[in-house]
């Protein structure tokens, strides 16, 4: 039976972890866009990656540190995560992203020159003007699939990868590498809570409807809301079927070492 107190604690952890990493990441972008800081794509990607790692370090012991609807849904479908917790977890993550935007806006309030698409980018992501909506969708799909596949690999006890204190750092490094490689295309959202929660705040705070549509024919907000979830499911399938199941059939490092001992 699911304890209400335990679920509450887990949701608070998901809220806190998401709040932490989105506040740090969006704060970095605010420094660049409204405060005159000088960051390149790699610096921004590294800050986001380290922010994710910190969020995972702080909350993993309580909730598992999903910090993303993509991870929560993938673990519910292909892992052992209780499906009854999906909505509470995602609600906590969305609220964490929303409140992170509130904090960043409050701290940088006097520095915002105007409510334009450029300053809205402090809070949320927009596609490169030169790519199509299909390219944007496939970018978010692919990079989230990659991230979730790595997370599944790092959490699989059968593949011999590093465990414990290294895992959050490796997840953060993955986020940073993805950001450096594909961030210029879509802003590497990979996370509906990181994107839609702050986007909703920006819309409520007075940015016009372009914050939802990104000036496109259909609401661009739907792409970072849906593509990461679908991509996460694909990444989970990819790892589970092509890596996880072969490991269970006897291709684990421990099984290989036993085979070598028998042959020697």
UniProtKB/TrEMBL annotation:
It is found in: Membrane. This is Glycerol uptake facilitator protein. PROSITE patterns: PROKAR_LIPOPROTEIN. PANTHER family: AQUAPORIN OR AQUAGLYCEROPORIN RELATED, AQUAPORIN-9. It is a multi-pass membrane protein. It comes from Candidatus Tokpelaia hoelldobleri. Belongs to the MIP/aquaporin (TC 1.A.8) family. Its main location: membrane. Coiled coil: none annotated. InterPro entries: Aquaporin-like (IPR023271), MIP (IPR000425), MIP/Aquaporin (IPR050363). The chain crosses the membrane at residues 12-34, 46-78, 90-111, 131-154, 166-185, 218-239. Keywords: Membrane, Transmembrane, Transmembrane helix, Transport. The keyword Repeat does not apply. GO terms for molecular function: glycerol channel activity. GO terms for cellular component: plasma membrane.
């Amino acid at each position: 039976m699911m304890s209400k107190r335990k679920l509450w604690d887990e949701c608070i952890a998901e809220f806190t972890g998401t709040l932490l990493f989105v506040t740090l990441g969006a704060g970095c972008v605010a420094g660049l866009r409204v405060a005159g800081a000088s960051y390149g794509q790699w610096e921004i990607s590294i800050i986001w990656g380290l922010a994710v790692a910190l969020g995972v370090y702080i909350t993993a012991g309580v909730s598992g540190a999903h910090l993303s609807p993509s991870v929560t849904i993938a673990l519910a479908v292909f892992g052992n995560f209780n499906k009854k917790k999906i909505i509470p977890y995602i609600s906590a993550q969305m609220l964490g992203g929303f409140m992170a935007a509130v904090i960043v806006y409050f701290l940088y309030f006097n520095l915002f020159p105007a409510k334009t698409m450029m300053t809205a980018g402090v809070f949320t992501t927009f596609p490169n003007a030169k790519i199509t909506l299909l390219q944007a969708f496939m970018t978010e799909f692919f990079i989230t699939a990659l991230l979730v596949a790595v997370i599944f690999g790092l959490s699989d006890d059968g593949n011999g990868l590093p465990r414990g204190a290294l895992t959050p750092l490796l997840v953060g490094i993955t986020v940073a590498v993805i950001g450096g490689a594909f961030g210029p295309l879509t802003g590497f959202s990979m996370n509906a809570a990181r994107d839609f929660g702050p986007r909703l705040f920006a819309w409520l705070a007075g940015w016009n409807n372009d914050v939802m549509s990104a000036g496109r024919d259909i609401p661009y907000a739907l792409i970072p809301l849906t593509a990461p979830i679908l991509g996460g499911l694909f990444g989970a399938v990819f790892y589970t079927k092509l890596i996880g199941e072969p490991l269970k059939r006897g291709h684990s490092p421990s099984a290989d070492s036993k085979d070598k001992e028998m042959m020697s």
